[in-house]
Amino acid sequence: MQRLICAVLCIPSSHINIYISFCIVQGTVLNSWKVVWVVLSDDGVEFFKRKADSAPKGMIPLKGAVLTSPCQDFSKRALVFKLSTAKNQDHFFQATHLEERESWVKDIKRAITCLQGGVKFARKSTRRSIRLPDTINLSELCILMRDQENGVKEQKLEKEKRVYNHCFTGGTVVDWLISKDKARNRPEALMLATGLLNEGFLQPAGDVSKQGVEGGTVSTVLDEPNALYYFADSGFFCEGYSSDEDVIVKEEFRGNIVKQGCLLKQGHRRKNWKVRKFILRNDPAYIHYYDPTKGDEYPLGSIHLRGSVITAVEFVPDAKRYDVDGNLFEIITSDETHYFLQAATSEERKEWIKAIHTVSKTGK
Predict the structure, then answer these.
(1) How far apart are CA 142 and CA 155, in angstroms?
(2) Which SMART domains does this one have (predicted)?
(3) What pLDDT sits at residue 290?
(4) What is the DSSP letter of 15?
(5) Contact 297, 314 (CB under 8 A)
(6) By the 8 A CB rule, do 161 and 181 touch?
(7) What are the beta bridge partners of residue 290?
């Protein structure tokens, strides 16, 4: 029996999980793809109709499950992966972009591996498993690494006929940690880098680095020039073909994509809230939004950001049709049009505000 799920993959911060984002689920009756809120736990994947719901609509058990990626069952849909349960039920997920799918595939595989080995899958075990001292604050360390002036420099690197934007090598991370006196030697720096990877601050890019995260409960950062990594939600994207031969729409990567992902957006007429995929570019300074169930070929609308004001807000006027609470922000354009958006977490809201503010000041 098949159950098609085109879900917006989201993980609330209250759960002990690995990855936070939106994704897409296909219904059982009409076979239409819909956006849902998804939670990856240590033994299953739960999905909700909306973030505010206290009870899930359903749960996919991971014990004995098999993950297939890429999934080629849908000729007109890219970035799909399949989760087959022990009872031969197939569940299909579609991510909004390549890096998001790869992060979910990595984390679900690790959860399945942990279940097979009788090990609890939880981010809290990372510090103990790699023996990080309690005095190490990985969140603060990541902030220092992402500093524009003194942090790790993001680069545009070409490997195996593919161009990786906004990334760096494992060796670069190790060199930076030693140069900033965060580690005394390369083995100690690799331990810190591995902690950042397992906590989700770093993500693997390319075949070599992905080999270090496949199989096993703890990923490993590789101190190699061909092992590429990027900061989570940094605007990383790859031009060309991925290693799994998924066809990536070239047009989406033209221009300088600063950030992309899904947010809740309030409509201007009915004032209801819907999940939209947003792609932020800085030349020109536009953010386009799409129906995540229908791809990125035709945007539903765009916001010209030049001269806009972006602020965090605590409430939204006329927010009656949807239970929204927290992580809200507002974009006021130069022609005084107001857009209200909601991120999944407070950290994600900060990152979107910072990225949009920078584009509004520097873009055309």
Answers:
(1) 17
(2) DEP, PH
(3) 87
(4) S
(5) no
(6) no
(7) 277
pLDDT of residue 217: 44
* Cβ–Cβ < 8 Å for 91, 36: no
Q: Helix, strand, or coil here: 359?
A: helix
Inter-residue contact 70 to 93 (CB < 8 Å): no
CB 36 within 8 A of CB 27: no
Q: Find the distance separating the first CA and the last CA of the chain, reported in whole Å.
A: 51
Q: Block means of pLDDT (10 residues each) for the chain, length 364 residues? A: 41 35 54 77 82 79 90 74 89 78 84 84 49 78 91 87 85 95 92 84 83 62 89 68 39 63 85 87 83 76 88 78 74 90 89 91 72
For 7, 332, 339, the CA distances from 306, given in Å and listed in that order, are 33, 10, 14
Token digits of residue 228: 């590429």
Residue 171 tokens read as 């060796």
Which SS3 state, helix, strand or coil, does residue 357 take?
helix
- Please provide the size of the chain in residues: 364
Number of H-type helices and E-type strands within the chain: 7, 21
Question: Can you give the pLDDT at residue 131?
Answer: 63
**Using CA atoms, how far apart are residues 114 and 218, in angstroms rounded to an integer?**
10
Which of 304, 362, 361 minimizes the C-alpha distance to 336? 304
Backbone φ and ψ of 207, nearest 5°: -65, -40
